[in-house]
Amino acid sequence: MNDRLATVATLAVNGPRLWQSLMELGQLGATEKGGVCRLALTELDRQARDLFVAWCQAEGCSIRIDQIGNIFARRPGVRDDLPAIGTGSHIDTQPTGGKFDGNYGVMAGLEVLRTLNQHGVRTEAPIEVCVWTNEEGSRFVPVMMGSGVYCDAFTLEHALTRSDHEGVTVREALAAIGYAGDVPAAVSAGAPRFGAYFEAHIEQGPVLEDAGIVIGAVTGALGQRWYDVVVSGMEAHAGPTPMGLRKDALFAATHLMQEVVNIAMAHQPNGRGTVGCVHVHPNSRNVIPGKVEFTVDFRHADDAGLLAMDAALRQAAAELSGRFPVQVNVEQVVYFEPVAFTPALVEAIRTGADRAGCRHLDIVSGAGHDAVYVARTAPTAMIFVPCKDGISHNEIEDADPTHLEAGANVLLHAMLERAGV
Ligand code: HGY
Ligand code: MN
Ligand code: MN
Ligand code: MN
């Protein structure tokens, strides 16, 4: 092996530098409990985006912002005409999110850039580190919005016209933070495809930590169906209205919410059912609720299972209006099938873990990720590392710096193998 290849083979990221970047980024939207609240396309998201752009420009990258606000930091390759080898994730968080969900994948990509620059390594193909817009789907639905537009899961116009609970549209929010880019966002409109895409992420569950294993070779991800449910009855006075004459939307809705969990329990081991948001109208203690809006998040490892859960929900909703004097509307707002990542890239992660001296485990992601959509356009795989007690989407989310470093090393070498040196 010649000297240059020998150098590349021994390349390693700088773990403390990676940790420092994560801690600095985590200050933007830091919460008292040690988490991060940085909702998509807010002023805090702008600050985090600006910080990422500045860090990448300091590494000599060019920056591309597309029409849905996705950011692509590009390190040129010797053969700049080749498709880029991509990585990245998201920096928007849940309202009570942590420092690592999404942010780790973006900072690990930045650490790859810094390591290549530090050692003067030129890759054949260009390298791109991405920040995908509104992955969490917390402020704006659908979830994984930027990568969904990129892969034509839904149109740019559909995404731009989604609005948050205050009625602010994605289009307005992008303009307000100065990230309404001008390059095509969708592959079908000319957005470049990657030669390969790898995403590093914390597992957000307990499997790796329980097994004492540092690297997860992610073979795929659960499919998801999200719904907005509205149960309508009639507001009335909590005192004079006899129990038998009420059209209590909340009492009826609680039965359907129970069914969401019961349906998932009937589809074990892979079925998941969650009611995450509930809005009661008028939400006054002495008014019988006239309307309840709640969300449903269904997930399953196979599409037939997901479809069976959908049918069970719709049947339960139909039965509800037969049992109670209410109307029920169920609107599906997100759907994507379970995804299988690219076997050759998953194998590259296993061998990268072996090379890094880490045990690895094949694992299916219960969470959705931008890689799920990118996989529709290019060879794609994910690297998981454990998070403390498997907790995520929680301000106490935590991870071991040495695990984050190991995952970034596997990412570095998997990308180098594809980019060529
Ligand atoms: O919901 C998810 O799986 C991801 O956190 N957006
Ligand atoms: Mn995430
Ligand atoms: Mn998340
Ligand atoms: Mn192995």
TrEMBL record:
Classification via Pfam families: Peptidase_M20
**Protein family:** Belongs to the peptidase M20 family.
From what organism does this protein derive?
Parazoarcus communis SWub3 = DSM 12120
Alphabetized GO MF terms? hydrolase activity, acting on carbon-nitrogen (but not peptide) bonds, in linear amidines; metal ion binding
Q: What SUPFAM superfamilies does the record tag this protein with?
A: Bacterial exopeptidase dimerisation domain, Zn-dependent exopeptidases
* InterPro entries (alphabetical): Amidase_Cbmase, Bact_exopeptidase_dim_dom, Peptidase_M20
Q: Which UniProt keywords apply?
A: Hydrolase, Metal-binding, Zinc
Keyword Repeat listed? The answer is no
Q: Which cofactor does it need?
A: Zn(2+)
Record Gene3D superfamilies:
3.30.70.360, Zn peptidases (3.40.630.10)
Query: In its keyword annotation, does this UniProt entry include Hydrolase?
Result: yes
Q: Which domain of life is it from?
A: Bacteria
Q: Where does Zn(2+) 2 bind?
A: 101, 136, 393
Q: What is this protein called?
A: Zn-dependent hydrolase
Q: How is the cofactor bound?
A: Binds 2 Zn(2+) ions per subunit.
Which residues of the sequence carry a binding annotation for Zn(2+) 1? 90, 101, 201
